[in-house]
Amino acid sequence: MTTSGTRIPAAPITGLYGALVKKFATKMFGSVPESLGVLWHHQPALKASMSYGQKLQKWDVVDETLKTYAHMAVASMIGCSWCLDFNYFMARDKGLDLDMAREVPNWRASAVFSPLERQVMEYAEAASQTPPTVTDEMVEPLLAALGPAGVVELTSVIGFANMTTRSNIALGIESEGFSAACGLKPLAERPAVGSPA
Length: 197
Fold this sequence. Notes:
With 197 residues, the protein is mainly alpha-helical. The chain has nine helices and no strands. α4 packs antiparallel against α5. The two termini are 33 Å apart.
């Protein structure tokens, strides 16, 4: 790994598009995340991922809270500290309940989530297993609560979360402290694998 922890050193973000990206990042985070420099090595891949992520944010069949919890559940299970921290940070901007969002890594043991929220996070984890462990029994209550379009949207969010979390892990991209920088409480700890929830 490089001295910063990433497996690929960050590239200088240059040019007109680079200036726009840095301006947007600084406005959102207060600084330019190092991860952008890593992804800058392949700008078409960066643009495609950003474009899909922005389109996904506009979908509104499923409540934003449920989609955020699903993404955070995937990030926690896969071990992507960047995505987990980023989604917790973004929960503040989306007006979500931050005390609940911080509990997502420990959702099985936490008493703060509704049955539907638990079903969403269970589904997100099952869809993220290799191979996936989704069952008909998991989908039935989601279909009843969200409808067919909602289940498709939720599944697409989970798929995108898997792409970003697994890519970040492979590249060695870790949390850059977004939530800590804006004074959010630390995230709940995920129980060790094999420990009782």
